[in-house]
Amino acid sequence: MGIRSFAAELLPSALQIRPRMSDTDAPPPPAPASFAALTDRLSYLSKSDIKKVREAYRFADEAHLGQYRASGEPYITHPIAVAGLCAEWKLDVQAIMAALMHDAMEDCGVTKSSLIEHFGAPTADLVDGLTKLDKLQFSTREESQAESFRKMLLAMSRDVRVILVKLADRLHNMRTMQAMAPAKRQRIAAETLEIYAPIAHRLGLNQTYRELQELSFRHLFPWRHAVLTKALERARGTRRDIVDRVRKDVEKAFGAARIKVEITGREKTVHSIYRKMREKHSGFTSVNDIFGFRIVVPELKDCYLALGVLHQLYKPVPGRFKDYIAIPKANGYQSLHTTLVSPLGTSVEFQMRTDAMHAVAEKGIAAHWMYKVDPKGGASGADAQRLGALWLQSLVDIQDETRDSAEFLEHVKIDLFPDAVYVFTPMSKILALPRGATPIDFAYAIHSDVGDHTVAAKINGEPVSLRAELSSGDVVEIITAPGARPNPAWLNGVRTGRARSKIRHYLKNMEAEESRSLGEKMLAQALRAEGLVMPSADPTDEAANAVWQQIARISGNRGRAELLVDIGLGRKIAVIVAKRLAQLMAEKGVKPDAVMLTLGRFGNDDAAPAQGVVFIDGGQDATVRLAPCCRPIPGDAIVGYLGRGEGLLVHTAECRTGKRLFERDSERWMHVEWAEVPVRNFETAIVVLVRNGKGVLAQIASAVANAEADITHLDMGDESAADSAEIRLLISVRDRLHLADVMRTLRRSPAVMRVARVKP
What we know:
Elements: H1 3-8, H2 35-40, H3 47-63, H4 77-88, H5 93-100, H6 104-108, H7 112-119, H8 121-129, H9 141-158, H10 161-175, H11 182-202, H12 206-220, H13 222-238, H14 240-257, E1 262-267, H15 270-280, E2 291-297, H16 300-313, E3 315-316, E4 322-323, E5 336-341, E6 347-354, H17 355-363, H18 367-370, H19 381-401, H20 405-415, E7 420-424, E8 430-434, H21 439-446, H22 448-452, E9 454-459, E10 462-464, E11 476-480, H23 497-529, H24 542-555, H25 560-568, H26 574-587, H27 594-602, E12 614-616, E13 624-626, E14 638-643, E15 647-652, H28 656-664, E16 669-674, E17 682-691, H29 696-706, E18 710-715, E19 724-733, H30 736-747, E20 752-757
Parallel strand pairs: 2-6, 12-16, 13-15
Antiparallel strand pairs: 1-2, 3-5, 4-5, 5-6, 7-8, 9-10, 9-11, 14-15, 14-16, 17-19, 17-20, 18-19
């Protein structure tokens, strides 16, 4: 006798204990195969609404006429079944109509304008949001899939009914995949487990989430699913005595306390058992909380009274109590969880919740349509709607900063991570973040400006690294500075899609702005060689704007800013653009200035206008890089190489690698200079020959520190056992004079035999 049997035996006596089976235990209701069966489920709609649904059915039936599913059934049975699942959630008439016609645009060539004409814009928008982008050409299946997900999720952010219909569509497809080819079943099941099941969980649709997981597991690993199913059936029989004993004790305890409750038997799904076995690297027999109980009570205060009754009955397992009522999960889920030790030594989990909480726990955001829940009962459909809306808004934020579909999907997958930690701001506001989140994630969860200007963090009053992992209950304080900006290294540690997209967006904008500034300087320098001054960027100067539009069109750019960015990144050569621009300006009657022409081509740099010179101060991290082969520092003679799409790469004038590049691609070289006051230190490499002995490394480090420099990397090679050894140091210095001071200080050390700067 399984969990269904003992739950059915629970006595509806003075305790008012009624059998309410978990949705995972009961088989799913059969999907309606005809419109007549569907209308039986639409009794909550008005007669006029049912008439509209009938019109949508006729439209879909005609559109799918002659089409069949892989099983041989008429295709229209699938939209009817999807509409039936939506009816279980009590969705409105527009959503039911969209469910009936969700494949009409994609498979039948029906246009959106036709749907607007027949059924109105709201229904047409829902159908359009459900339509994939298969008609467009994509280079790979992955690109097409990512762009389709992007479209669907953005439509969902505008109207959550889109994803509810899509989840109903995916659920029915998963229930009826037996007729498909094995490879296709595997692909769809993997996609469901990776994307759709987590979305259902994120929106609180736990019943749908569990069934999608279970069906995906069955299709992905049929042998493992069959073995675990048989083991679970055997466990029901062998553990029946334990379950019956616990049930009777619980009934008796609540009867004595005179608390009205509904006790429901609960059983873990096969997939959740498999996942726990994988996480703990253990066998089936070690999973000891397969069975549990759900206690449903009338009011919020009764949850805590029920908890007290259970803790008086059995001993609780330390660390296994969770209060999701005081601190709900991110998807709106609320319950008290506790694990108790039964008289036979086994662990049994209990969940306590109100009817309202149970509605939201099983239906999540769909409870907004299903129930008019009393706020006194704790959670409500409106709470689930609000929490769901917070995540949907985050999709809009990510979309605003992400133009690449695959990157957008990556951010969304990160945000679908189900586990969460709950942390506090200094003002005691609670934030839910994914497990493994850092103070940077916390900062961006507060506001993007806080994240962008973060410099340090404190957890529970103690300074911590920005990479520190947050734990539930931590009080997190973020310290900001006006001049701070995101560090590219942050991308390796953040866990939320919002933080990742914000950082990438900032870095891309910073790179574009620096590239534009560099491109402007380079084009001004190239135009000076033609004896011309850059046309004005003033939007009110019509003549200059016309010239910029022409040169941008000739160069294949959308405007002046994009053209300058391309020049700064090396995608366009400034000299060639300058010559084309000179021709256009000549057509407008602008003649070269003889004096400027002479200075630009033959004069020295001191006589040249300052706006054409590219100064290197160490602050242009995104578009100006120092070559790792020669590692130039202020004081070195330098030249700039404009790589294709890589920005400006600065070499020393004597660098052999740079000279080879010059011989091969001379038109991409330009003259650059060091700024008078660099904004940071620069790394360079030196090699130190030392006598091996005790404390040699300490002497080297002390000498570098005494010279006010830093060692950023050290390499001794494999010569540590020899009489002498070469130590390669990467040190951070201000300029050549500072480097010379460091090398002199090192030479004074008794252990040092020779010091030299590494040259390519």
